[in-house]
Design a protein that fits this description.
The chain has 11 helices and 9 strands. It is α/β, with parallel strands linked by helices. The protein binds S-adenosylmethionine. S-adenosylmethionine binds near residues 21, 22, 47, 50 and 80.
Length: about 270
């Protein structure tokens, strides 16, 4: 599977089939970044849902030089199982109908334990991506052990307070060299976006890369600049589609970030 900017349409169709709730430009952003980081061993997915994001990251990380990543997924399952039983969260119904077969919808509705969710996602990931996933699911971020992660993908939380609680609980679980991704950094989760700005103001996270809806951060400015410089040096990255932003002294003298030129990707 080609995860580069040369395969926007292929990536779009693949993530749609997996049921991942992200545009292809964000997948390409992750490709651009992860081929310029040190070895990734552990990733935490906050909001594992149908496992579409997990399946995509599993393949993408392998494609960018990080084989055998161990994943941890957090999901209360209330939303997924309850929705499959038609009792809550009505706007997801059509998404289930579009992404899941009838037998997948039936088996999803019976998921009650994190072990069952783990097996369900593992089976579906292998079937749809041809790549096995090393995964362990838990119901709540408070059930996580003291594992430190190389990557955290934050994909739940509505209110500012709820998101700040997750940031404060999970940023300390990120290694000093790790990458923290905030998803739906847009009108998809407006109050998570507000919470992310507050966390940056509190100097808990430093921006590296602005995707379309995913923003990638480091825990300290030195690490953020190392990754930015590596991405800008990468000759495989098409400079028309990804560009260095002018320096901002807010984060330190001549601090640079990278922005996806996602409009250009859409039209390329
Ligand atoms: C937007 S979906 C995640 C999509 C997934 N990351 C992907 O890309 O395919 C959010 C999920 O988080 C779960 N969730 C929401 N708040 C939660 C919480 N506080 N603890 C655990 N799970 C939660 C919901 O059940 C839902 O399945």
């Amino acid at each position: 599977m080609d995860y580069s900017y040369k395969n926007v349409k292929g990536i779009y169709e693949h993530v749609l089939k997996l049921g991942m709730l992200s545009p292809p430009e964000d997948v390409i952003a992750a490709w651009m970044l992860f081929k310029n980081t040190d070895q990734i061993g552990h990733m935490l997915e906050l909001g594992s849902y149908l496992g579409g994001g997990l399946g995509m990251f599993n393949q993408l990380l392998a494609a960018t030089g990080h084989a055998n990543v161990k994943f941890t997924g957090v999901d209360s399952l209330e939303f997924i199982g309850a929705q499959a039983r038609q009792s809550r969260g009505a706007w997801y119904t059509d998404h289930f109908n579009r992404c899941l077969s009838e037998s997948e919808r039936t088996s999803l509705a019976s998921l009650n334990t994190p072990q069952e969710a783990t097996e369900w996602i593992q089976e579906r990931t292998l079937r749809l991506t041809g790549t096995a996933i090393d995964l362990k699911c838990v119901l709540d971020e408070k059930d996580l052990d003291d594992q430190q992660y190389d990557v955290i993908h934050h994909d739940y939380g509505d209110s500012v307070e709820e998101n700040l609680t997750t940031f404060r609980h999970c940023v300390p679980k990120l290694k000093d060299t790790g990458i923290y991704i905030v998803d739906d950094w847009c009108t998809g989760a407006p109050l998570r976006t507000v919470a992310a700005v507050l966390v940056v103001q509190q100097k808990l996270l430093y921006p590296i890369l602005w995707g379309k809806n995913k923003v990638f951060y480091a825990k300290n400015p030195e690490r953020a600049q190392q990754v930015v410089n590596a991405m800008l040096r990468d000759t495989e990255n098409n400079p028309r589609l990804f560009k260095g932003m002018p320096g901002s002294d807010y984060f330190g003298t001549n601090y640079q970030t990278v922005r996806m030129h996602w409009q250009a990707i859409q039209w390329s």
